[in-house]
Design goal:
The protein is an all-alpha fold. Helix content is 75%, strand content 0%. The protein has a domain of 204 residues: Orthogonal Bundle (MetI-like fold).
C-alpha cells in the first residue's frame, strides 16, 4: 500500500511540475518587458537584435518555444542565463546547497526552540509562567521573518556588532571546498575554524527564519500535548508515580508529534520561500537572492529554472512529510 501511494504521489508530482512549468512559461511571456532589451547596446542594429532573439529561441511562437524548452529540460538542459551568460543548471547547483543548508539549519533551530517552549508550557500549565510563555510565543508568531531580519541587523550587526552582516564566509578565508555544501564539508573534514565562521554568518538568517516557525511549532505541539495529557494511558502512568517531565516526554510526546510533523512540513515549504527576502537582506548567496536578481533582469531561463526547483522542493518535502507522519501513525502505516 505504501509503495502504491508513493507511485501515485510521483505521478501527481510529475503532473504538478508540468503545470508549474506551463504557468510560469506563459506568465513570463505575457508580462510587460523585453529581456533582450536589457542585453543589447544602444547602437545595436535590428539584425543584431534578431540574431540575439533567435539565439535564445524568442523568435518562435509560444507553443514552439514551450515545446523546445520542455524537451531540453527533460535531458537536463535548462538553458543559458541571459544576465549571467552561464548555464542555468550550473548556477542552480552552485546556489541551491547554500539555501538548503540555511533552511535546514533554521528548521533544526525552530524544532528545538518550539519543542522546548511546548514542553515547558505544558509542564507549567495553570501557573503564573504560562501566560508569560504564551505572550513570548505570540510575539515570535506575530513578527514576520523579514522584520526579524531587519531587527537583528540593527541589534547584532550595528548596535552590538558581534555577528557578520552579509555573505556566507569571510573573504579573507582561503578555503578550497570539494562540494557546495560548505557547512557539512567543513564539519566532516574537521575544519572547525571554517565551520564556526560559516555558523557566524548563518546565525542571523537562521534566527530570522526560525523564530516564526518555532512559534507555530510550539503552539501546535502544546495543544497536542495538552490533549494527550488527559488520555487514559497518561493518567495510568501518572498513578504509577512518573514525574510530569517523564509523562510529557515518554507518554504524551510520541502521540502528539504526528500532527506537529505534518504542520511543520507545510510550514517548512513556506520557510524555503521566505529565504528569498531574508537572503537578500543578508546578501546570502543562495537561490533566493539570485531569484530577485533574475526577476529584476527579466532573465527568463533563470527564472524558469528557479521556479521549477522551488516546485520540486515543495513536492519532495511534502512527500517526505507524508512518509514521516505515516511512520509515527500505525493506523496510516498499516491502512
Amino acid at each position: 500500500m505504501i509503495a502504491l501511494s508513493i507511485l501515485n504521489r510521483l505521478v501527481l508530482a510529475a503532473i504538478t511540475l508540468f503545470g508549474v512549468a506551463l504557468i510560469v512559461f506563459v506568465l513570463l511571456r505575457v508580462v510587460p518587458g523585453d529581456p533582450i532589451a536589457m542585453m543589447i547596446s544602444p547602437g545595436a542594429s535590428p539584425e543584431q537584435i534578431a540574431q540575439l532573439r533567435a539565439h535564445y529561441g524568442l523568435d518562435a511562437s509560444l507553443p514552439v518555444q514551450f515545446w523546445v524548452w520542455l524537451k531540453a529540460i527533460l535531458v537536463g538542459d535548462f538553458g543559458t542565463s541571459i544576465s549571467l551568460r552561464r548555464d542555468v543548471l550550473e548556477l542552480l547547483g552552485e546556489r541551491l546547497p547554500a539555501t538548503l543548508e540555511l533552511a535546514f539549519a533554521a528548521l533544526v533551530f525552530a524544532v528545538a526552540l518550539g519543542g522546548a517552549i511546548a514542553v515547558l508550557g505544558t509542564m507549567l500549565r495553570r501557573t503564573f509562567f504560562e501566560p508569560v510563555i504564551d505572550t513570548f510565543n505570540g510575539i515570535m508568531l506575530a513578527v514576520p521573518d523579514f522584520v526579524w531580519a531587519l531587527a537583528l541587523v540593527l541589534v547584532l550587526g550595528v548596535f552590538l556588532p558581534v555577528l557578520p552582516l552579509s555573505g556566507r564566509l569571510d573573504p579573507g578565508l582561503q578555503v578550497d571546498f570539494s562540494t557546495p555544501f560548505y557547512l557539512i564539508e567543513s564539519l566532516v573534514t574537521f575544519k572547525f575554524a571554517v565551520f564556526g565562521n560559516l555558523l557566524a554568518h548563518m546565525t542571523m538568517p537562521v534566527l530570522a527564519l526560525g523564530l516564526p516557525l518555532a512559534a507555530i511549532i510550539a503552539r501546535v505541539l502544546k495543544e497536542a500535548l495538552l490533549e494527550a495529557m488527559v488520555q487514559d494511558y497518561v493518567l495510568l502512568a501518572r498513578l504509577k508515580g512518573k514525574s510530569t517531565l517523564r509523562l510529557v516526554l515518554q507518554e504524551a510526546l510520541r502521540n502528539a508529534v504526528g500532527p506537529t510533523i505534518a504542520l511543520t512540513g507545510v510550514q517548512f515549504t513556506f520557510l524555503i520561500g521566505g529565504t528569498v527576502i531574508v537572503e537578500r537582506i543578508f546578501a546570502y548567496p543562495g537561490i533566493g537572492n539570485m531569484a530577485i536578481d533574475a526577476v529584476i533582469n527579466r532573465d527568463l531561463p533563470l527564472i524558469q529554472g528557479l521556479v521549477l526547483v522551488f516546485g520540486a522542493l515543495f513536492i519532495v518535502i511534502n512527500l517526505l512529510v507524508d512518509l514521516l507522519v505515516a511512520a509515527f501513525n500505525p493506523r496510516l502505516r498499516h491502512g
